[in-house]
C-alpha cells in the first residue's frame, strides 16, 4: 500500500514538473514569436539633405533600442521624384499594415496621407504642414498626422545676406509652383525683404525641367539668389549653381547641406537633427506616449550658421571675422 502511494506521488510529481516545463516552453515560444514594430518610410527623392534626414532617423531609432531587422522592421521606399511611384509605393507600404508611417518631404507625406486616415503618419521635414493640406492646424493637427517642420529662420537668413552684401538691391527667389509650402516660405521672405527696402523677384517652375531656362533669366535680373526649402529646387540645385557661377551671382540657400553644394552661406536647420526628432516622435507613438491628433508640429527655434568661404572668395564677398568664428564651416 505504501509502495503504491509512493508510486502515485512520484507520478504526480513528474506530471507537475512536466506541466511546468511545457508551460515554460509555451511562454518562451510566445516571447520568440511576438511581432516587432513595423515602420514604413517614404522619401521623395535622393539628395544630400533628405538622405541626411533618413540617416539621423535610423541612427536615433537604434540609439533608443530600435535596430532595423532586430527590434524593428523599417520598410524604406524612395520615389525618386516620380509622383506615380510615390502613389504606388504608398499603397505598398500601407498594404503591409505598418504600425506607423513616415513621410520625408512634402510630396511623399501627401502621397501617404492620400492613402490612409487611420495609420499614424509622422512627417519628416515638411515646411508648413497646414499649407500643404496635411493637418488642420500646426498646433493641433486633428487627424492621424503630426511630425517635424523644417521651416527656415527666414529673418535670420535675410539678415545674413545683408551682412555679406550690404549693397544688395534685388534678390531672385526660384521655387516650385507644385509645392504649397514653398510658396508660403517665399511669401514670408518677400514680406520681410521688402520691409528692408530689398526688391524680391519670384521665379516659379513646375518641374526640374524648367530650372535651367528660368535660372538663365533670373541671373540677368538680380544681385543674388535665394532658394527656399523646396524639394524640386533641391533636386536641380547643381543646375542653378552652375549657371549662377557663370554669371557671378551668389546663392543663399535655406538648407545647410546646399552650402556645401555651391551656396555661399545660410542659417539653416541641421538636416540630421530633423531626422533625429522624427525618430523620437515615432518612438513616442509606438510606446503610446503621444497621438498625432493632439501633438503639435515640432518646429526648431534655432539654426546653424554655415559658410562656404571658398565660394565667397571667388565671388568677391568678404566674410566678417565674427561670422567666421561663429560658423560651423
TrEMBL record:
Pfam families: ABC_sub_bind. Transmembrane segments: none annotated. InterPro entries: ABC_SBP_TrpX-like (IPR047776), ABC_transpt-TYRBP-like (IPR007487), Peripla_BP_I (IPR028082). It comes from the Bacteria. PANTHER family: ABC TRANSPORTER, SUBSTRATE-BINDING LIPOPROTEIN, ABC TRANSPORTER, SUBSTRATE-BINDING LIPOPROTEIN-RELATED. This is Peptide ABC transporter substrate-binding protein. It comes from Vagococcus luciliae.
Amino acid at each position: 500500500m505504501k509502495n503504491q502511494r509512493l508510486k502515485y506521488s512520484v507520478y504526480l510529481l513528474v506530471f507537475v514538473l512536466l506541466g511546468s516545463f511545457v508551460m515554460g516552453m509555451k511562454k518562451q515560444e510566445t516571447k520568440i514569436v511576438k511581432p516587432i514594430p513595423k515602420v514604413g518610410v517614404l522619401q521623395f527623392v535622393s539628395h544630400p539633405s533628405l538622405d541626411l534626414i533618413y540617416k539621423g532617423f535610423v541612427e536615433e531609432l537604434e540609439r533608443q533600442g530600435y535596430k532595423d531587422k532586430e527590434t524593428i522592421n523599417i520598410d524604406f521606399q524612395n520615389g525618386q521624384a516620380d509622383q506615380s511611384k510615390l502613389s504606388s509605393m504608398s499603397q505598398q507600404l500601407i498594404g503591409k499594415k505598418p504600425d506607423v508611417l513616415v513621410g520625408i518631404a512634402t510630396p511623399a507625406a501627401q502621397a501617404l496621407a492620400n492613402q490612409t486616415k487611420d495609420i499614424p503618419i509622422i512627417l519628416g521635414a515638411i515646411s508648413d504642414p497646414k499649407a500643404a493640406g496635411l493637418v488642420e492646424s500646426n498646433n493641433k493637427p486633428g487627424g492621424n498626422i503630426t511630425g517635424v517642420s523644417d521651416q527656415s529662420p527666414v529673418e535670420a537668413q535675410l539678415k545674413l545676406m545683408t551682412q555679406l552684401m550690404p549693397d544688395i538691391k534685388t534678390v531672385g527667389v526660384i521655387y516650385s509652383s507644385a509645392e504649397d509650402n514653398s510658396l508660403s516660405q517665399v511669401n514670408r521672405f518677400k514680406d520681410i525683404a521688402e520691409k528692408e527696402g530689398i526688391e524680391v523677384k519670384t521665379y516659379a517652375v513646375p518641374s526640374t525641367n524648367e530650372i535651367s531656362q528660368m535660372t538663365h533669366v533670373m541671373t540677368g535680373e538680380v544681385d543674388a539668389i535665394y532658394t527656399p526649402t523646396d524639394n524640386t529646387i533641391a533636386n536641380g540645385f547643381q543646375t542653378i549653381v552652375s549657371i549662377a557661377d557663370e554669371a557671378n551671382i551668389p546663392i543663399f540657400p535655406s538648407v545647410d547641406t546646399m552650402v556645401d553644394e555651391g551656396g555661399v552661406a545660410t542659417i539653416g536647420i541641421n538636416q540630421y537633427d530633423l531626422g533625429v526628432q522624427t525618430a523620437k516622435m515615432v518612438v513616442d507613438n509606438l510606446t503610446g506616449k503621444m497621438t498625432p491628433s493632439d501633438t503639435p508640429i515640432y518646429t526648431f527655434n534655432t539654426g546653424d550658421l554655415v559658410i562656404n568661404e571658398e565660394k565667397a572668395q571667388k565671388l568677391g564677398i568678404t566674410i566678417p571675422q565674427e561670422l567666421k568664428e561663429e560658423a560651423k564651416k
